[in-house]
Task: structure prediction
Amino acid sequence: MEKNPKTHDALIKWLISAFTKEFFAHYFPEIQIGNYTFIDKEFIKKYEALKESLKGDLFLIMQVEINSIWQDVIIQIEHQSKRENISERVFEYLCYCWLLKKKPVWSIVIYTDEAIWQKNIPNTFWYAFTSNTQKQIFHFDIIKIKSEKSDDLIKQDSMLCKLLALKANDRNINRESLLYEIYQTAAKKRNVLNDDQLLLVNRWAEIYSNLSQETVNRIKKEVNMELIETTISEHIYNQGLAIGEAKGEAKGEAKGEAKGEVQGQINLLENLYQQGILSLDQFKNFAKPLQQKLIQLKQNIEIK
Result:
């Protein structure tokens, strides 16, 4: 199991991004949500100085039904891999969210640490005072994955819940059976899940199953999911191709399109490496032939 905390930040962020509706349906079933858009890039562009501390966070604009009226709300989701009171920081980022869009903000903190808490952690922050109402208190939602039971999560139809079972309280449950159920469900849903979700299932299982690679491979074979590796290289190629085509069309250059395809693949690999999803060795192995191809394309263009 990898120990790089950036890997875990990236995977949690990826999980919520890939299964956003399932995330809210599971944790906030009483809240009706509508369309949503991720605004991470806009947020970081506005607050560049916060870039490093925001890598594991998610920011969305989402339609939420409040008092029977649909309203745009900024969703702020922060990931914490250890038990720590971060109420002041959550409020600070709420202020940044409000300044960016000037809309109501819903703050959520998701804890993925391994400890079983004996006491709850604060989910409020005293931010203001008035003579009439005295203390003004900011409230936010806390999700503690380890407080959920793997046995309950794995029984849910939701792919998100089944993946979370590997991070929840797995006392008295066989982890091999958890992984078997996850891959079996992925096999059944393979025509519904997109490439990104299938890739996440595979990566999540590699990191959090705590089983040998031999066992993981055996389970895949048993449930006919050896092809679940819509591999990183294939995924990057497809995404890079789309980016390259868009750039090529914009420029009206066939050679520019080819360069765009390759550069798009390299950029995506760099992004996955920076997020900790790819190891340094994986990044080098995938990037080296692409970098050589890019050099060759540039030389050919210069010659002609």
About this structure: Strands lie at 33-38, 58-66, 69-80, 105-111, 124-130, 134-139, 141-144. Confidence is low (pLDDT under 50) at residues 248-253.
